[in-house]
Amino acid sequence: MKIKFLFSLALIFTLFFANAQTATKIKTVAVPAFAKEIQTNKKPQILDVRTPEEFAEGHIENAINVDWQGENFVKNAEKFDKNKAVYVYCRSGKRSLKASEKLEALGFKKIYNLDGGFLKWSAEAKTAK
Questions:
Q1: Which of 58, 79, 104, 113 would disulfide-bridge 28, Cβ 3.0–4.6 Å?
Q2: What pLDDT does residue 17 have?
Q3: 126 in the Ramachandran plot: left (φ > 0), alpha (ψ -120 to 50) or beta?
Q4: Boundaries of each Rhodanese domain copy (predicted)?
Q5: Which of 118, 119, 116, 120 is nearest to 28 (CA)?
Q6: Residue-level pLDDT at 24
Q7: Pick the catalytic residue: 35, 86, 90, 99?
Q8: pLDDT at 23
Q9: Which residues pair with 26 in a beta bridge?
């Protein structure tokens, strides 16, 4: 009985600590929180991970186009400061989440992913160029 208890206790601690170590650095946030973050951050690093064609149709002010589907995504992403917050968006939120996961794997410390992407940003009448 004591062995089962100790085994159970060990299993619980293992699962708890394994889960704690896999905590993500990615925060998926709604438009108001995303807008507030980029407005209050001096020189925010805003990555638009859509295609250049999509970017040309309109984008968040001061965003830099780093095409997730482009062959130079990693090379271009490496130009950004990994210790500063990075704000990522795409058209609807799917590509930006994948890009955010890649940025996390590259060592970025604080990543904000825009929930709903540029479609939601535009629908909520935020500043776009």
A1: 113
A2: 52
A3: beta
A4: 40-126
A5: 116
A6: 84
A7: 90
A8: 76
A9: 111
* Residue 77: predicted pLDDT: 97
Query: What pLDDT, on a 0 to 100 scale, did the predictor assign at position 104?
Result: 98
- Report the distance separating Cα 62 and Cα 40, nearest Å: 14
Question: Quick check: 37 and 44 in contact, CB under 8 A?
Answer: yes
As given in the structure block, the two tokens for residue 129 are 């160029």
pLDDT value for 1 = 61
DSSP 16-46: HHHHHHT--SEEEE-HHHHHHHHHHSSS-EE
CATH architecture of 25-123: 3-Layer(aba) Sandwich (3.40)
- pLDDT at 127 (0 to 100): 61
**Is residue 90 flagged as an active site residue?**
yes
- CA 104 vs. chain centroid, Å, equals 8
Task: Spell out, as residue ranges, where the chain has pLDDT lower than 50.
Answer: 5-6, 9, 11, 18-21
